[in-house]
Amino acid sequence: MSAHTDETNNPAPEAMVRPTPRRVSWAWLVPVLALGVIVAVIIAQATASRGQRIEITFADASGLEPGAELVHRGIRVGVVREIELTGDLESVRVRAELAPHAEGLAREGARFWIVRPELSLRRVAGLETLLGPRYIAVEPPEAEAPRLAQFEGLPAPPSVSAGDAAGAGGVVVVLRAETAAGVAPGSPVLYKGIPVGAVTGVELADDASAVLVRAHVRDEYARLVRTNSRFWVAGGVGVDFGIFRGLTVQAPSIDRLVESAVAFATPNRPGARSEGGHVFELRAEVDSDWVSWSPSIPSEGADAP
Predict the structure, then answer these.
(1) 65 and 113 both lie in a single domain
(2) Which one, out of 50, 65, 251, 268, has a CA that is 20 to 30 A from the CA of 86?
(3) Count of domains for the chain
(4) 124, 152, 180: which is the final residue of a domain?
(5) DSSP-assigned letters across all residues of the chain
(6) Average pLDDT over residues 45-51
(7) Do 269 and 166 share a structural domain?
(8) Is residue 32 part of a domain?
(9) Is residue 1 part of a domain?
(10) Which of the four pLDDT bands, split at 50, 70 and 90, describes residue 22?
């Protein structure tokens, strides 16, 4: 075999150059991990600061806008996020977020209503919304009530019911009058000008011969109501016209111009303490002697002077 043939069949080996393995540098992972930690912390903080979402359905949400506040005891307890019509176009669904410290409001029995300006013979309320935005007022439920996320909003502020009044203690009396004279549920009950209770109901007697006003006096003032106490309609506007003296308008104060209240007085010699359901006459005017009464009626447990 020739040398030429041998070289053809057995070529010279080629040199193979293997690349040198590159060392993996972990230095670039440090900022990536740090960024991941920061993002995780931000998400955790955002989740922790986000309160419970609830839905409130109203028949009418006029004046309410996203960003409106939910308010309880004068402080912000939530915010409205979305407002939209329900599927049947018959009502409005309001989606709101409660503040973390107010999540206890999301329980069965909580009541929500939109605060709007109100000026009537019965009450003045919500005047701060004349220039500012509407907001949703909240009345909390019982602490042990089950949690709930969907609520039916009230069309108007709730008034004290007879059942609620009885459960809150105090005394409920029935006042018989010729007419309602501007007294309505929610009207205040006054003693010496101090609110001590509220009217819980106004209705006709069974024979329609009179109006029956049910009034609740709070527990701490219940001792003031005696069997010989006298009740009358306070407030409203009295008009007297004479040919020689002209027109006279009588009103004790500006707040009484737009609100009728029930006032009562107890004689200097108080009778027995009134029990619930006692019927009194509700007079349209006050007797001058009644306002001069000033009995000494110590609070429960206090020593008489």
Answers:
(1) yes
(2) 50
(3) 2
(4) 152
(5) --HHHHHHHSPPPPP--PPPPPPPP-TTHHHHHHHHHHHHHHHHHHHHH---EEEEEES--TT--TTPEEEETTEEEEEEEEEEE-TTSSSEEEEEEE-GGGGGGSBTT-EEEEE--EESSS-EE-GGGTTS--EEEEE---TTSPB-SEEEPBSS-----HHHHHHT-SEEEEEEESS-TT--TT-EEEETTEEEEEEEEEEE-TTSSSEEEEEEE-GGGGGG-BTT-EEEEEES-EEEEETTTEEEEE-SSHHHHT-EEEEEE--SS--SBPPTT-EEEEESS--TTGGG-----PPTTPPP-
(6) 62
(7) yes
(8) no
(9) no
(10) low
Give per-residue pLDDT as tens, 110-160. Answer: 999 998 755 444 444 444 444 456 899 998 887 788 999 999 998 877 765
Establish if 43 belongs to a structural domain: no
Assess whether 145 and 179 both reside in one domain.
no
**Distance between first and last Cα of the chain:** 145
Global confidence as pTM: 0.49
Q: Which residue range is the domain that position 142 belongs to?
A: 53-152
What integer pLDDT is reported at residue 243 of this predicted model? 40
Give the side-chain half-sphere CA count within 13 A for 291.
Answer: 8
Give the integer Cα–Cα distance in Å for 23 and 151.
63
Work out the mean pLDDT of the chain and round it to a whole number: 77
Q: Of 152, 183, 215, which closes a domain?
A: 152
Q: Are residues 217 and 195 in the same domain?
A: yes
Q: Are residues 111 and 195 in the same domain?
A: no
Q: Are 280 and 142 in contact (CB under 8 A)?
A: no
CA distance 240 to 253: 17
